[in-house]
Specification:
- The chain is an alpha/beta fold.
- The protein folds into three domains: 160 residues, Rossmann fold, CATH 3.40.50.620; 59 residues, Roll (SH3 type barrels), CATH 2.30.30.280; 77 residues, Translation factors (Elongation Factor Tu (Ef-tu), domain 3, Beta Barrel), CATH 2.40.30.
- It is built from seven helices and 17 strands.
- The strands form three sheets. Strands 12-15-14-13-16-17 form a six-stranded antiparallel barrel.
- α1 packs parallel to α2.
- 39% of the residues are buried.
- Bound molecules: adenosine-5'-triphosphate (ATP).
- Adenosine-5'-triphosphate (ATP) binds next to α1 and β2.
- The site of adenosine-5'-triphosphate has 16 residues, from α1 and β2.
Length: 366
């Protein structure tokens, strides 16, 4: 990394991005911090939005480091690119993934553009992921980069970066990607950073601590329908709207099983009569496990995989990588066949594709 690089650090007010800024400064980069204001509690979303405190914390760290700090208002873009995508997805019976979309559209989209417009050569975040040189530039063409999982396998956040492209990665820096979390905390304490002891954030990207269900209740009107047992068609009750449930969900269905050691789980949604399909949880629950999925809207970090290949995939952020067969289809999508059946693959979610610890890209599954 060139010592004269002018880097814009996305500072969320958390410890990870605080240490990202600290490390870049120690490397001799010209560092400026910025908080992205993407969401505020002004649309009557129930819940606690800690954004004001986050700005205070991010600014405190910037002051400690003696770097310039900005609050960048991206609320309009966030509303258009993330909130609308979320609401549209739920309205179509899908389970969207705002965290993955945020990275592509907001952090490495409009925020990156804001950085470029203000003369920054790169955007840094506190993601646990590693960007490595894949191919040095031999001619005038730019070098190519690969994305690897974070060194701390327990904190790895590469999944959230699955839809980035090469150009976005070229401008991205992940200064904490090599660090184990305890070491990062130690560095933060040692440097006396205001966020050193702050607990890790939760909740969906930018909607802060607001729970998804509260968010949806506020923005999507109730659309009740029957709760139907998939195995025999028995109607067990009513629900307030299919968008409030996800495949594989056990909690909050509101129907006691009345059978020892058996719990109902959501196994499907039937659009025709807005039925929520449930069954007893287990390997035999109809529709809960599947071995094959179709993936579309594919996006690649490097060269696309255009022939059948044995790869690995991660179907959710916290899930381990699992072996799969990747079969490109004529329509630009792909068929993915898992070595073992996967539980609760909710349509609209993202499959991240890997070769070992290298993230190749990803797509949305149906
Ligand atoms: N509102 C925001 N403003 C600026 N940067 C942000 C914001 N939200 C997230 N980021 C950036 O994206 C990274 C990953 O976001 P995530 O919400 O997963 O935070 P995190 O892993 O808890 O990290 P941190 O401890 O820095 O909050 C952050 O480290 C930060 O660089």
């Amino acid at each position: 990394m060139s010592a004269r690089e002018k880097i814009l650090v996305a500072m969320s007010g958390g410890v990870d991005s605080s240490v990202a800024a600290l490390l870049l400064q120690r490397q001799g980069c010209d560092v400026v911090g910025a908080y992205m204001k993407n969401w505020i509690n002004e649309e009557n979303v129930i819940g606690h939005c800690p954004w004001e405190q986050d700005i205070v914390d991010a600014r405190a760290v910037a002051d400690q480091l003696g770097i310039e700090f900005h609050v960048v208002n991206l609320m309009r873009d966030y509303r258009a690119r993330i909130v609308d995508y979320l609401l549209d997805g739920y309205a179509r019976g899908l389970t969207p993934n705002p965290d993955v979309m945020c990275n592509r559209e907001i952090k490495f989209g409009v925020f990156r553009q804001w950085g470029r417009d203000h003369g920054f050569t790169a955007i840094a975040t506190g993601h646990y992921a590693r960007r490595v040189l894949a191919k040095p530039a031999l001619t005038d063409a730019p070098a190519t980069y690969s994305l690897l999982e974070g060194a701390d396998k327990n904190k790895d956040q590469s999944y959230f970066l699955a839809l980035l492209n090469q150009e976005q990665l070229r401008d991205a820096r992940f200064p904490i990607g090599d660090l184990p979390k305890p070491e990062l905390r130690r560095l933060a304490h040692e440097a006396g950073l205001a966020t050193a002891a702050k607990k890790d954030s939760q909740g969906i990207c930018f909607i802060g601590e607001v729970k998804m269900q509260d968010f949806l209740r506020t923005f999507v009107p109730d659309q009740p329908g029957p709760i139907v047992r998939a195995t025999d068609g028995a109607v067990l009750g009513t629900h307030r709207g299919l968008h409030l449930y996800t495949l594989g969900q056990r909690r909050g269905i509101g129907i006691p099983s009345n059978t020892d050691f058996q719990n109902y789980v959501v196994v499907g949604k039937r659009a025709a009569d807005r039925a929520l399909l449930v069954a007893f949880d287990g390997p035999d629950a109809p529709g809960l496990f599947c071995r094959e999925i179709r993936v579309h809207h594919l996006s690649w970090i490097g060269a696309p995989v255009s022939t059948p290949a044995a790869l690995e995939g991660r179907v959710r952020y916290r899930d381990p990588r699992v072996p799969l067969e990747y079969l490109p289809a004529a329509d630009g999508g792909a068929l993915v066949r898992f070595a073992t059946p996967q539980r609760a693959l909710a349509a609209g979610q993202v499959l991240a594709l890997y070769r070992g610890e290298q993230l190749l890209g990803g797509g949305v599954y149906l």
